[in-house]
Amino acid sequence: MAAVEPEGAGTSCDGCVETPQPGPARAVRTDGGARSDHSVPERKKSAGLRVRIAVIGSGGAAFAAAIRASQEGAQVTMIERGITGGTCVNVGCVPSKIMLRSAYIAHLRRSSPFDGGLAPAPSRVDRVALLEQQQGRVAELRQSKYEHFIDAAPNISLLRGTATFLDARTLHVRRADGSAQRVTFDRAFIATGASPIIPPIQGLHDTPYWTSTEALAAESIPPRLVVIGSSVVAVELAQAYARLGSRVALLARRTLLAREDPAIGAIMSAVFIGEGIRILEHTQARWVAFDQGEFALSTDLGVFRSEQLLVATGRAANTASLDLHAAGVARDDHGRVVVDEHLRTSNPTIYAGGDCTSHPQFVYVAAAAGTRAAINMMGGDATLDLTTMPAVIFTDPQIATVGLTEAQARAAGIGIDGRTLTLDNVPRALVNFDTRGFVKLVAEAGSGR
Fold this sequence. Notes:
alpha/beta
């Protein structure tokens, strides 16, 4: 099932996570010396004693696992090398949705279906003020949704540093000051997330290009912006910057949103072109140069110039520095931790979840994985079923999908019965004077499933 709807039609946010309150438990403290053993005597849950769990990371998956395990009586040590909260709250869902919303407001002030009675009132974009507002909310949510729980849960402790496996039961944690500490565990949960993929384009590494991280924290709106990429992050930020004042060109190796139903890409291409965004499909970058404040990007369609270049070509798992082989944990060809439906790795005492695995990169998937992994680490039997996982892209119109696309169903040998309803047949869209989009249902022929 797929739906493409105007921005105001939905209010859900893929960055809003309600984290459960941690239950009461005792704390195990570590000393602050250069080297110590962060362990407690090995105990069994059935005897009412502590299981030691090490959680590597502090994002949605990590916190979901830590809180659930602590509620069930485990002693949890979270290990974080960077800022608490992971991608979503700091450099992903939360800041991007704030930026998208501000861009939407700017767009409506310039043009809306009600301009006849509400005269357009374009306003000057003060990016510094918007950024201050954005980062203030990020800090607020990081404290209330993440840091608060560490302070409130006596059996969850946070250790700052970079973790690597020494063996199947021991981690080595190196702090920023160079000191080191060992953490022994009964179970471990890997939730190290992912980072932007940087494609091997000649000259790119010698330029001050943006990834989504820099794009969300930029203090100014570039007059011209070229975006390399055509999936979720690329299209969301391309539209946001265009609405905030940039002239945007987007380079797609195939077509816009090629992994989605073709009708979605077709509608969003028309929307983007209507908003002045130039879409260059089936286009590849050959080389990049930067000189005197200007990027030059060579493609098979010629050279494009801009004040800024955004690279948004996907994200890769943060697993290279973990020494997973020392713990007997397997990775796939893309560096992602291999897990089964119980979130268990090739080492039965080590689990993983979130963006460092092959699961879809959504915070709600990560949180679901963390909770189920914690249940299993504490002796339960929970599985993660993503068969009917919903997904959202926060462009305008917004895009929501769940289940198999028509092409996926046909590839699986499923006979289908499809229906599409365009929004010019939907009264709610008609009264909004915004009929961009459609609702499409793909059902199994005969059963209607």
